[in-house]
Specification:
176 residues
């Protein structure tokens, strides 16, 4: 070890000097997980109407998935309820982590409206046939939850449409 070199460093190795060494908060090192690459949370989104509907959609879809799964229905009902849960969690995380602002490759509210429309169109036959079949209480409960999820999809679609309409109006008035 060279005289004057800190313990554990090899002779001739570069030393990092300056503000990044020593007096950093909580042992923060450049490139660590607590650095500036951390995604900011949108704390206002869960308290908004759109956030509340998105959270309710996620929970009802998860409950319908669990009902269909525990009822022993491992076909279309369970698969669609699971798919609905995953896509709703995706959009919830997208808005919560503000990834829609970072990823400008797609207009995310429009993609969310298309998701709500296709979900509503597929939830009509799923909910009605599950309620009509009545083979056991789990399938019937899943069908009722699917119909509730259909109503939440329609509310979500309306709120997103309202958001897009307001953004268009603001964009036109700002351009004048």
């Amino acid at each position: 070890m060279a005289p004057g070199s800190p313990a554990g460093s090899a002779p001739g190795s570069p030393r990092l000097e300056g503000p990044s060494r020593g007096a950093s908060p909580a042992g923060h090192r450049p490139g660590s997980a607590a650095g500036p690459t951390r995604l900011p949370l949108d704390r206002a989104f869960p308290r908004s109407a759109r956030g509340a509907v998105k959270i309710a959609r996620t929970l009802v879809a998860l409950a319908a998935f669990i009902c269909f799964l525990t009822a022993g229905e491992h076909e279309f009902y369970t698969g669609y309820a699971g798919l609905e849960t995953v896509t709703t969690v995706f959009f919830l995380l997208l808005y919560l982590l503000r990834l829609d602002v970072r990823m400008r490759c797609l207009y995310w509210p429009l993609a969310d409206i298309l998701n709500s429309v296709t979900s509503a169109m597929l939830l009509i036959p799923v909910g009605l046939t599950a309620v009509k079949i009545k083979t056991n209480k789990g399938i019937m409960a899943g069908g009722v939850l699917s119909l509730i999820l259909l109503a939440l999809c329609l509310v979500d679609m309306f709120l997103l449409w309202k958001k897009i309409s307001l953004e268009k109006a603001r964009g036109r008035s700002a351009a004048k």
